[in-house]
Amino acid sequence: MAELRTLMEGLGHQAVRTHLQSGQAVFTAASGDEESLADGLAAAIERHFGFAVDVIVRDHAYLSAVVERCPFPAAELESKQLHVTYFSAPVTPDRFAGIDQQDHLPEEFRLGDRALYLYAPEGLGRSKLAERLSKPRVTKGVIATTRNWNTVRKLAELTED
């Protein structure tokens, strides 16, 4: 993570911080939109580390809105039960048409703005619904990355500054 921070600072980003060993970084950019910043970071990471990674960049307003608009009673759940999958682009309900939510109860998912909220009472590792949601038919054409609720909240908090 220290090497990632140094790389990002070398690109001109300021106040670079990373969250645990998760690959999540928070920074201030002088200019650029989310897509161009993500493309620039992905290219720099590939050049420096020698492998390609998918990168999604989101601002504080978006990350805070994801927390605020959670359709599940987040305060009542353990972090291992609630997850958010961030998508690089908007996704529509038709992407999920082949998934019968009734077949997966008590697990549930709800769509948000470029995000999917997943309630998995037994955790992500045991979730049959999470497995279905990660199939190529669902994720085709978009970058998707899933984080537990603690990380979702922490990233919103870290971007407040």
TrEMBL record:
Record's protein name: DUF1697 domain-containing protein
SUPFAM superfamilies attached to this UniProt entry: SP0830-like
One Pfam family linked to the record: DUF1697
InterPro entries per UniProt: DUF1697
